[in-house]
Write a structure and sequence with these properties.
This protein is an alpha+beta fold. The protein has 2 domains: 237 residues, no CATH class; 218 residues, Roll (C8orf32 fold), CATH 3.10.620. It contains 9 helices and 28 strands. α5 packs across α8 and α6 runs antiparallel to α8. The longest helix has 15 residues.
Length: 471
């Protein structure tokens, strides 16, 4: 069975009015599935250093003065030696200028099924998210800016409505609005499946991630995306095959260093090379920037931390769509963990201990939310960090989620952990490794939830690390 044969059409789901605006998306999906006239479609194989890691299938239909767009993706990779599959499906309705009107999104892995649908109403994007533990609604003010389809890269070429300049899109993989732009670069001749083709080339930038695109006959035939991923136009029979050797992403993106580090290191100074530093959070809590340029930085980390003020503690106590501090089950568990404790440091340690002991350590591919993790009781570093953040915030401890790298066995691996503000300092803590405070082998790149963590994508596959000092 091909991926696109999966039943993603929501048969049986009743269209219902929301804020007085009918959402007849079921009708549109059935139209897409049954229509014989496909304006255009394309299949692409996804590769990492020549090895197949997935494929995409994009279709465009004309409808109701605008367009219906559909994208089906399949990713097959390895994590810690185990195969992981990620399947996603997006169906979007736009006007004639590719401005988003409605969308339906599904994400499925062995670990999670997430569904979302959204609609634009009076300069606001409303999104309803369902992840197996009920539904929650999120609103995103657009500020008068046009919101284009998230499939803009393919849509503008398949429809012939090429848009250069700036725009915003909704990224369903991080549930956030992203600024983007398209820049025409000129023409270039490349070899493609045995033919020499003269192509138009473009640079697509969304947030800080940049992709170079080659277009021939109104179709993207090659895209060089961040993280070293390359998409190549292929016939369907070729796109869906070729997964003989799975790529282990954690090992592939690990960064080896020449200087071995001991487990008990408490101070470290690193030189970071070949990265865009302007969009990273290299200075926070116990990590400080010593020197910095546009593409390099020298940072130091002291496990003991530095005295730091906290002008806006509410920023680190609030509930978010994925860190549901106000959820009754989060509040109940947090209250039980810290019962009888008065000191914030003791509370944070008790929560760290509870999360470490209660969660099974298992590699997973999810969009983690604290309520989900509390229910399922397993996960990797992301799930541990999200649940710890919710429980600590619910206990009145300012807490942040961090993403970056951690050193193990001669290399740095991408990782997530936390920071807590106690006794006038930010301390890094690591709930999956039971470290309080976290060892100096941690390197922070970005702080914040899933919407912020995507900003490290331009770093992955490019970053080089040199150990300057360790003690």
């Amino acid at each position: 069975m091909r991926f696109t044969d999966f039943d993603y059409i929501l048969i049986g789901m009743k269209a219902r009015p929301l804020f007085g605006l009918p959402i007849p998306l079921l009708t549109l999906l059935l139209f897409m599935a049954c229509s014989r006239e496909i304006t255009s479609e394309i299949w692409l194989g996804l590769y990492l250093q020549g090895k197949k890691i997935g494929y995409q299938h994009i279709m465009v239909n004309r409808h109701d003065g605008g367009y219906l767009l559909r994208e089906d993706d399949l990713w097959r990779v390895a994590m810690y030696g185990s195969e992981k599959r990620l399947m996603s499906n997006s169906i979007e309705k736009t006007d004639a200028d590719l401005n988003l009107k409605e969308f339906e999104f599904k994400l499925r892995t062995q670990d999670q099924a997430v569904e979302a649908r959204g609609w634009v109403w009076q300069d606001t994007l409303f999104v309803e998210l369902s992840d197996g533990n009920g539904r929650r609604r999120i609103s995103y003010p657009l500020g008068g800016k046009p919101l284009l389809t998230s499939l803009i890269a393919h849509a503008m070429f398949l429809t012939g409505k090429v848009k250069t300049g700036e725009f915003i899109v909704f990224d369903p993989s991080t549930f956030s609005l992203k600024e983007g732009k398209v820049e025409a670069l000129g023409t270039e001749r490349i070899e493609h499946r045995g033919r020499s083709l003269k192509c138009e080339t473009y640079m697509l930038e969304v947030a800080a991630s940049r992709s170079k695109i080659w277009v021939h006959d109104r179709k993207i035939i090659r895209e060089e995306a961040p993280m070293g991923i390359v998409a190549v136009e292929e016939p369907e029979t070729l796109a869906v095959k070729g997964f003989e050797e799975l790529v282990d992403l954690l090992s592939f993106y690990s960064i080896k260093v020449d200087t071995p580090l001991s487990e008990d290191v408490h101070y470290i100074k690193l030189e970071l090379q070949n990265i865009p530093t302007s969009n990273l959070d290299l200075e926070f809590g116990p990590q400080r920037v010593v020197e910095q340029g546009d593409t390099w930085a020298i940072v130091e980390y002291s496990a003991q931390g530095f005295a730091d003020s906290l002008p806006n503690p509410n920023e680190f106590l609030k509930s978010t769509p994925f860190v549901q501090v106000d959820a009754p089950e989060i509040q109940e568990v947090a209250s039980k963990i810290v019962q009888g404790l008065d000191d914030d440091s003791a509370k944070a340690f008790a929560i760290l201990s509870w999360v470490f002991n209660e969660l099974e350590k298992r590699p997973s591919v999810t969009l983690p939310s604290a309520v989900d993790v509390l229910k399922e009781r397993y996960g990797d570093c992301n799930e541990h960090a999200v649940l710890f953040a919710a429980l600590a915030r619910a206990s009145g401890i300012p807490t942040e989620i961090l993403v970056g790298l951690v050193y193990q066995n001669g290399a740095y691996y991408y990782h997530a952990w936390n920071a807590v503000y106690v006794h006038g300092k930010w301390f890094f803590v690591d709930p999956i490794f039971f470290e309080f405070p976290a060892k100096a082998t941690h390197l922070l790149l970005k702080r914040g939830g899933i919407d912020r963590q995507a900003d490290i994508v331009p770093v992955v596959g490019r970053l080089k690390i040199k150990v300057l000092e360790a003690k």
